[in-house]
Amino acid sequence: MTPSRPATHTGNGRHWRSSLRQSLRNSIHRLSLQRGSSSRKSPSGKTEKNPGVSKKEQDQLDCMLDCLSQKELEAAACASYCYSQRRQVLADSETTKSESAHERRKFAALLCLNFLRSKNHCTKKALSKLKATLAFRDDTQIDKLRTVFDRKKPVDCKKTSSLLAQLEQKAAYVQGYDKDGRATYIFVPRRVHNHDETSTLNLHVYTLERALACSQSDDGQVNAVVDFYGFSYSQHAPPTHVGKHFLNVFRQHYAGAVHHIFIVDAPRSFRFLWTIFAPFIGQGTREKIKFLKSVRTASKQSVSRSALSDFYDREEATPWMVAGGEKECELDLNEYLYNTRFDQAFGDSRIAQSPKL
């Protein structure tokens, strides 16, 4: 049984509103697991048109989905953490086989759409990239990685200890949401002291998967905030092969996952990193990168309004991100890994419970 989460009571109205939003998120999460989708399979057996998807895109999606085996469809659907949790509920419910198949196809279409758009609607290229991603997810055992700290699941001691050693550096975690509900992947390079290739990749894949599971935005994307404050190139820069490996994985297998990448307080030595790694960053991703100063280094004239305040409310930001930021708790790894759901950012469990409605 997962221990109950502590609550910090406060009279601050902003905290109460955050609490109410979190309560609603939790309710929606539970209802989605219990009730599933209200949509029905179309008579043609094709996927029903999704909002924001053109007829041409829908035809291309159907073409991609029809090229997948049942095993591949299931794997593509499981890329959504929501579906991976929901499938057991579907199996235990009175849901018919056709309804389950429709649900699987609907979630698989979300992953297909990301690759279709990233490949400028070339179905052949998108399908090739999708299948490569499914193979990567299988080889990396993404489903096991997501649940490696779940006390209800069997423990993989080797994978757990390796990932835990990386997480103990407190260099990568999920905390806070932007104004549109995108979860925030925070990375602090100065805290990294171990650059083992496999465990480093697992750290970032685990954190990115968790951020995607947490995201509440309509587009399902996340933001990455990279805090370069105190970074030393000689002490903290990753070996070239490690950095290239991660960037290649990100580029090949997480199309459309990130909305913005905020590079905060980049030092002069950052240009060396950029020279080495820029060729491995796609043009579309480069356009999402924003270089900013934090509250710590901004001038007195601008400290009251950092650029991040355009994207984050104070209750969802740390003090160095936004002046008056209220996410002040140091990362509690035990709380984050064992007492907080995988689809919940660190600190959400500390918000006071809202009054019963």
UniProtKB/TrEMBL annotation:
Compositionally skewed regions (Polar residues) per UniProt: 1-11
Bias type Basic and acidic residues, positions: 46-57
Domain CRAL-TRIO: 160-330
One GO MF term: phosphatidylinositol transfer activity
Low complexity composition-biased segments: 31-45
Coiled coil: none
Annotated region described as Disordered, given as residue ranges: 1-57
Name of this protein: CRAL-TRIO domain-containing protein
